[in-house]
Amino acid sequence: MAEIKPTASVKATSVQAKKSSNAISWIAPIFCIIAGYAIWRFILGSADGFNEPSKEGGFWPKHHKPKDSLHGIYEGGIIVPLLIGMLLIVITFSIERFLTIRKALGNGSISDFIRKVQYHLANRNVDAALGECDRQRGSVGNVMKAGLRRYKEMISEGGLDTEQKVIAIQKEVEEATALELPMLQKNLVFLSTITSVGTLVALLGTVLGMIRSFAALGEEGGAGAAGDLAVGISEALYNTALGIGTSALALIMYNIFTTKIDSITYGIDESGFTLTQSFASLYK
To answer: Under 8 Å CB-to-CB from 221, ≥6 apart: which residues?
Structure first.
């Protein structure tokens, strides 16, 4: 019968699950859409910005002949407040992700931090390596700290062989990583969704505006209606411009944040490799 080696005892990870509320994920989009309507209705749709304001239709007054291009956006239709709300969502979650990822990056260069830890481990000074983690204060430092604590435990562990100790350290790093990464990727789905949906919503607003314009042309007829048609088309294209701008901003911010997250993920992978290789070479 094959010999069965004792396995490392399973201990809870030293990194505790981060407590985070999902309230912003639900409240922020709703608030942004409401704010988008308020901007469209009361700022862009202010009666003072039109030569022919309307007092009827409290939800959507039919103002005509805007005094400037800013108020001309109002006549793009009811899709405009949705697009403004989406733009506000992009801005809101860009700020939120920037603050979160900035905190996750920690203090100083990740590569410099890992080199310092490698130096201390090569000199068998685990406590100094833990001190570097406390100074780094980022996701890589948190994962490294969890791994180092298990690293320190395994040095004095006498019931396991070197391979089992390395596996225990690797498992600790993986558990700590599983707690860190979801916080980095949270809410990026809003940016990725708006990247593709924003243009489609803008196209819907443009199509609706064109339908209204051609319907009005059919009712009025005559050469004079051609001018109204041109005005209607320009109003409809406000939707396209706003949607493309929103999608472009969402795409840029999404790519920036994913690049930052990739650098953190690479640092976490390198830290795990550093711990296992160091232990395997120093404590055979």
So the answer is: none
56-69 exposure pattern, b = at least 16 Cβ within 10 A, e = fewer: eeeebbebeebeee
Residues of the chain with pLDDT under 50: 1-10, 12
Residue 148: half-sphere exposure toward Cβ, Cα within 13 Å:
24
Give 66-93 pLDDT, tens digit per residue.
888 888 888 888 899 999 999 999 999 9
CA pair distance 96, 79, nearest whole angstrom: 26
Percent of the chain with pLDDT over 90: 58
User: Contact 46/63 with Cβ under 8 angstroms?
Assistant: no
Query: For the chain, how big is the Rg over CA atoms in Å?
Result: 29
Take residue 86 and report the two structure tokens written for it: 């989406």
Backbone φ, ψ for residue 51 (5° rounding): -80, -25
Rounded to 5 degrees, what angle do the CA atoms 251, 257, 259 make? 100
Q: Which residues of 78-98 are buried (b: 16+ CB within 10 A; e: fewer)?
A: ebbbbbbbbbbbbebbbebbe
